[in-house]
């Protein structure tokens, strides 16, 4: 039952990544095919874990060694895959940071483009800037590359970068008519979103590591219990398998 709950949690997390439209996950998911692939993998792993939990229970109750062996093997594969994924993320973190910078940079440059397909992505980025109280990826200067702002002689700024009542779009800068401005004139947050995301990760690192460690411990316990039950079952008795 515990592994079925764990599988349901993993499955739900994968579905949430695909369905969520109002967070930083959306920016990554819509801009990077690898995250969408990862979400499908999570859904597959979650479904497999639920199935393995059922087979493990069936094998333990009916003392069927082949089911317990299959349960052990699948848990081991899942655990090895999770460890490998964690190592890849750790050793490729600089590459991932560069990819994020590229994704967000392109989003900021093309923000407010006439393409309706980008609207959800822009709304998600506005949500990120509002929630983290940040502006741009490195800082507000990133928005100087936006085509609309350039055409407006820097006299507008993204509303989500400030404490404005508007959550999206651009706000007008209070400057004399026919004058120009710079990002330094904007009443926006000084913190870049990269620093905000890193700070959030550091603040929640203990929780993240705790959850990952807990999942790994549960899987290890399941492997130990299944192999112990296998050793205690001296012979196969397929007559105990429920008939369909």
Automatic annotation (TrEMBL):
Main location: membrane
GO cellular component, one term: plasma membrane
Cell location: Membrane
Lineage of the species this protein comes from: Eukaryota, Metazoa, Chordata, Craniata, Vertebrata
Transmembrane annotation, as ranges: 6-28, 40-61, 67-91, 207-229
Classification via PANTHER family: CD82 ANTIGEN, TETRASPANIN
Coiled-coil intervals, chain numbering: none
Name of the protein described by the UniProt record: Tetraspanin
Membrane topology: Multi-pass membrane protein
Originating organism: Nyctiprogne leucopyga
């Amino acid at each position: 039952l515990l592994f079925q709950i764990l599988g349901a949690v993993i499955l739900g997390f994968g579905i949430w990544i695909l369905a969520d439209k109002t967070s930083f996950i959306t920016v990554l998911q819509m801009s990077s095919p690898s995250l969408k692939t990862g979400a499908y993998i999570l859904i597959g792993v979650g479904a497999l874990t639920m199935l393995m939990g059922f087979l493990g229970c069936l094998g333990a109750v009916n003392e069927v060694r082949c089911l317990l062996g299959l349960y052990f093997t699948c848990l081991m594969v899942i655990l090895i895959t999770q460890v490998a994924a964690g190592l890849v993320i750790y050793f490729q973190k600089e590459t991932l940071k560069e990819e994020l910078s590229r994704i967000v940079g392109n989003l900021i440059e093309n923000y407010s483009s006439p393409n309706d397909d980008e609207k959800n992505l822009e709304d998600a980025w506005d949500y990120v800037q509002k929630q983290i109280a940040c502006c741009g990826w490195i800082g507000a200067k990133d928005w100087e590359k936006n085509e609309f702002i350039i055409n407006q002689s820097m006299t507008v700024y993204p509303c989500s970068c400030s404490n404005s009542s508007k959550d999206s779009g651009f706000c007008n800068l209070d400057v004399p008519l026919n004058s120009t401005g710079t990002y330094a004139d904007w009443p926006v947050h000084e913190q870049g979103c990269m620093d905000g995301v890193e700070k959030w990760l550091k603040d929640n690192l203990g929780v993240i590591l705790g959850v990952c460690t807990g999942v790994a411990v549960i899987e290890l316990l399941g492997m130990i219990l299944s192999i112990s039950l296998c050793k205690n079952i001296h012979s196969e008795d397929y007559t105990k398998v429920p008939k369909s």
